[in-house]
Amino acid sequence: MIRLLDVADDGEMRSAFDLGVEVGSVDRPWFRPPAFGSWLIERRQPDQEERQELYGVFDGDRLTGTSLLWVPLTDNLDKVYADVTVHPQARRRGAGTALVGHLVDRVRQLRRREVWVESFVPPGDFASHPYSRFAHAHGFETGWVEAVRHLPLPMARTTLERLAGADAPSYEPDYEVRTFVGRVPDALLPGLAELMSLLAVDAPSGDFDFEAEDITPDRLRRAHAREEQQGRTRLSALAIHRRSGVVAAQSDLVLDDDLAGPVRQEGTFVHREHRGHRLGMATKVANLQLLQRARPGRPYVVTMNAEDNQHMVDINVALGFEVVERLVEWVRRV
Q1: Can you identify the CATH homologous superfamily of domain 154-298?
Q2: Model-level pTM greater than 0.90?
Q3: Edge-to-edge, what's the strand order for the sheet holding 114-121?
Q4: Tens digit of each residue's pLDDT (9 = 90 or more) over 71-84
């Protein structure tokens, strides 16, 4: 049986969360889940611009798998994004097939044309992995592949200073790099929102088209407020064009309140009209310097980049990031 789970029911949400923790712990040796309370806030306070639907498949009274759908409401209205999870002991017994069938039916009901699902696999030949075989058997094709990299902390201060100094002549005096702990000042939010809305368009995405996302200052404020409720801290580095005041580049790091947990690189993006000044490296280095100054003691930073995004790959390699796994973006056309 598959049914919509009640996000207001603490017991059902706990079961769904625990299932996800078990799956992640089996498949990924460095997996570290968020706190249950933080995860619950994401389920109960989704973006207004995106509806969430969480379904569970049951064997009797036991939850054996889930599918979580993100349904865009203001952009990319031909798409649904989803996460499908099946307990290891329930695999090869039809639970995954049932969830995918239900997912595709739901996408049809919503009159969407594409459904996107991702899976983490070990580095190397992902085509032979069970997740890949399952995806192909159920009509999915590879959208693109991202390399997941870890950067051990702390970085040598002299290395960061060297990289910062080497890049400064490329962007000074035309740009100023500013860093922030917590919320970005309101005066910069319109420019930041405009920049971030272009990420889905400009980021490498294989042969698939994405619209600019509906990112607004108010949406960013709500996201930052939600992060504060979750006990998360955002570190931001912005490159500001001195003459125009345009937010030309950004790089974000997000930390949970788990001091032993990793730091997540949420994104680094340079406006298409301001490339060629090494602003990607400049903002990443500035943010790493801020991290080690303001929030020291974390074990590593995790980042993900499309493997054909050579510019960002080169930056990560220069910083010392190492590949630990791959993220495969699967798409099924409905």
Answers
A1: Gcn5-related N-acetyltransferase (GNAT) (3.40.630.30)
A2: yes
A3: 2-4, 50-59, 62-72, 79-86, 114-121, 322-333, 141-152, 300-306, 263-270, 247-255, 233-241, 175-181
A4: 999 999 999 999 99
